[in-house]
Amino acid sequence: MLLQNRAVFTLGLRMCSTHVTKGPLIDTARPSSDMSEFRKAFAQAKHIAIITGAGVSAESGVPTFRGENEKWRKWQSQDLATPEAFSRYPSRVWEFYHYRRELVLNKKPSAAHLAIAECEARLKKQGRSVVVITQCIDDLHRQAGSKHVLKIHGNLMETRCVSCGEVTVNRRSPICTALKGKGAPGPDVADAEISVDKLPRCDERDCHGLLRPNVVFFGETLDSHILTNVEKEMEICDLCLVVGTSSIVYPAAMFGPRVASRGVPVAEFNTNTTPKTEYFTYHFQGPCGTTLPAALAQHESEVF
Ligand SMILES: [Zn+2]
Question: Domains of the chain by range and CATH?
Answer without folding.
Answer: 1-62+110-153+223-298 (3.40.50.1220), 67-106+157-215 (3.30.1600.10)
